Backbone:
C-alpha cells in the first residue's frame, strides 16, 4: 500500500488490466503489464533518467484507461493522448510528453529509418495505418523541432523491443516505488547530496 493516491490508482489499473494482451485483438505475445515492465527495464538498461523510465513504464496506461482495445481494432484509440492527459495531473511534462509523442515517434521512425519498419510487429504495423502512416517531409521537420521528440524516439525503440515472452524483469512494485520517488521529489524539490537530515 502507498499513501500516494496516484500510486494506488496505478497499482489498481495494472491489477485490473495488466493481464490483457498488449494491443488488444492483434495480440502481441506479452500482456500489458509484461510490456510495461520490459519497457521500463530497457529504459534503465539504456541509462535513461528516472522520468523517462517512468514514461516507459506508463506509456500505454491509456490502454488501461479505455476499453477501446477490447471493442475493436479498426479505429485509432488515441491511447497516447488519453494516457498523457490523465497523467498530467500527477507527473511533469518530462514524463507525459514522451508518452504523448510515442505514436508520432513511430510515424517519424518509419519515415526516416529504413530498418525500423521491418522490425515492427504485425500489431504495430496495423496500428500505424490507423495512426496516419509514415510522416510526410513537413511533419518530420515539425516533429524534430519538438523539445521532447528525442525522448519519444528513445521510448519508441524500447516499446518495439519490449515484446519478448517470458523475459524476467523487475516487479511492478519496483517501478511504482521509482514513480513514487519522482512524485516526492516534485513535492519537496530534488534532494541534495548531503541528504535531508544533514543540517547540523
Ligand atoms: Fe507500447
Residues:
Amino acid at each position: 500500500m502507498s499513501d500516494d493516491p496516484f500510486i494506488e490508482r496505478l497499482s489498481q489499473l495494472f491489477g485490473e488490466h495488466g493481464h490483457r494482451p498488449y494491443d488488444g485483438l492483434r495480440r502481441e505475445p506479452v500482456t500489458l503489464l509484461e510490456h510495461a515492465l520490459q519497457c521500463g527495464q530497457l529504459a534503465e538498461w539504456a541509462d535513461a533518467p528516472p522520468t523517462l523510465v517512468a514514461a516507459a513504464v506508463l506509456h500505454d496506461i491509456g490502454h488501461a484507461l479505455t476499453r477501446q482495445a477490447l471493442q475493436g481494432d479498426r479505429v485509432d484509440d488515441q491511447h497516447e493522448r488519453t494516457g498523457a492527459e490523465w497523467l498530467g495531473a500527477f507527473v511533469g511534462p518530462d514524463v507525459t510528453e514522451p508518452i504523448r509523442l510515442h505514436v508520432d515517434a513511430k510515424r517519424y521512425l518509419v519515415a526516416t529509418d529504413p530498418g525500423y519498419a521491418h522490425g515492427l510487429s504485425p500489431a504495430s504495423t496495423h496500428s500505424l495505418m490507423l495512426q496516419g502512416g509514415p510522416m510526410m517531409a513537413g511533419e518530420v521537420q515539425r516533429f524534430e523541432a519538438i523539445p521532447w521528440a528525442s525522448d519519444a524516439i528513445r521510448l519508441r525503440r524500447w516499446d518495439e523491443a519490449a515484446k519478448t515472452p517470458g523475459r524476467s524483469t523487475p516487479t511492478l512494485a519496483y517501478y511504482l516505488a521509482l514513480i513514487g520517488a519522482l512524485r516526492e521529489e516534485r513535492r519537496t524539490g530534488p534532494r541534495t547530496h548531503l541528504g535531508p537530515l544533514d543540517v547540523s
In short: The radius of gyration is 17 Å. Residues 172-188 form the longest helix (17 residues). The mean pLDDT is 89. Residues 35, 59-60, 159 surround fe (iii) ion (CB under 6 Å).
